[in-house]
Design brief:
With 90 residues, the protein is an alpha+beta fold. 31% of the residues lie in helices and 37% in strands. The mean pLDDT is 94.
C-alpha cells in the first residue's frame, strides 16, 4: 500500500539538508519509492520532502521514516505519514 511521507524542515536547520543529502539519497535508493523529491518554498529553496513509498503497513512506513538520515540528523520540524489510494495518474 502506498504511504505518503510529508516532512517540513526546521527553520533553523541551516545547511543540514545539504550536509546529509547524499546519505539520504543512498538510503532511499534501497526502498520501493513510487516517487518523491524536495518541497520548495516561494524562492525555490528546498524546505521539506515528499515521498510516496510502497510498503505493506504503516509500521513499515514509520520504520522507513525513522531510519532516514534526514530524520536521524534532526532536519525536520514535522513529519506526517498518511496512507494513500492512487486514483488519478495511475
Amino acid at each position: 500500500m502506498p504511504y505518503v511521507i510529508h516532512a517540513l524542515d526546521r527553520g533553523d536547520a541551516g545547511d543540514l539538508r545539504a550536509r546529509t543529502r547524499s546519505e539520504h539519497l543512498a538510503y532511499v535508493g534501497g526502498f520501493d519509492i513510487l516517487y518523491g523529491g524536495p518541497l520548495l518554498d516561494e524562492e525555490g529553496a528546498m524546505c521539506g520532502s515528499l515521498i510516496v513509498l510502497d510498503v505493506e503497513s504503516r509500521k513499515e512506513a514509520e520504520g522507513f521514516a525513522a531510519g532516514d538520515p534526514y530524520v536521524v540528523a534532526g532536519l525536520f520540524e514535522r513529519v506526517a505519514i498518511t496512507g494513500f489510494k492512487p486514483v488519478l495518474g495511475t
